[in-house]
Predict the structure.
Amino acid sequence: MMLEGKPGDLTASIVAFCRFVRSNGIESDVRQTLSALQVAKAIGTADWQLLAFGLRAVLCSSPQDWDRFQRIFESFWEAADHPERSKSERKEEGRRSQLERQGTHSSFLLGVSSQEGTGKAVSGASAQQQLKKVDFSMVPFQDQNQLEQLADRLLRQLSVKFSRRFVQKEHGDRVDLRRTIRQSIRYGGNPILRAYKGRRRRKTKLVVLLDISGSMNSYSLFLLRFVYALQRAFKRVDSFVFSTSLVEVTDLLRVGQLPDALRRLSQRSAGWSGGTKIGESLEQFNRLFARKLLSQETILIILSDGWDTGEPEILAEEMRFAKNRVQRILWLNPLLGMEDYRPITRGIAAALRYVDVFAPAHNLESLLALEKYL
């Protein structure tokens, strides 16, 4: 229930909640507390699930924090000394929690129609189609686990498709007459064995740079799943994460199971939820890795919303440097999923002239559609 005439009460509660979060092992600083206050002001307390999602987006900086946050949120706000929540709200949420413990799924995932009185339901396949279209930043808490399971399954299928597609063919596209005649001598001149020739197929190499800054909080964990799927599909993939600096994570994502990869990644200092300096991070990559990793067989993939606190001239220069050394540059931006989004920020505007494919990456459907570019 929204506080009326008492904005200070909500402010004090959010500040107290941020302290409570820190006391429960989730690291956050003053800047994140200020961001939490802005989120609370924008969302209010009319929808507690939406408020919880917004606060988790700005306060969590690792997969482990993300998983623990819901329990911490509920523990704090269900306390009796927080009057913002009405008794009826707490009772209703308790009822929902009980249903979830009994194995009842949300109506969103079951595909139950939201129209009152219709009594209609759609199939599980239709529900999955709906879930594939939902923006990662707008997924309700109760659907997080189901979306993660669906993402893992679909991206695993995508990696299998990639793996099969890039197996070298045994035969070329044309018969090599000279070699066929030469081989036929051993069979008395009969061309029993045919020799083929064709262009040598270049093996695509991928280099992936994933933005894990604060503005990407709602998307980075799902995009990590996509990067993990790419590493399983392509033999030559080098993966990096960045915020204000660059960290290579190729080795961490090569483990057998995704949960193990995420757990190892959370233990490496990578600047989760920090600021964003895309240009400086790309300069670091070009300086340390470009000579070894970039070639005309390379597709460079940048996963970022383009919010850059650095100088746009630096980003433009580093993009130009990379563009001259790779086959293609794909910039995948979650904000492209918004109807009113325009790439007019200084950073993205400076980079776009060097981008071959500028595509959305805000939901499962958009990630699966990237198959045609790879």
Notes: The first strand starts at residue 174 and ends at 175. The beta strands are 174-175, 196-197, 205-211, 237-242, 246-248, 298-303, 328-333, 357-360. The chain has a mean pLDDT of 76. The two ends are 48 Å apart (CA to CA).
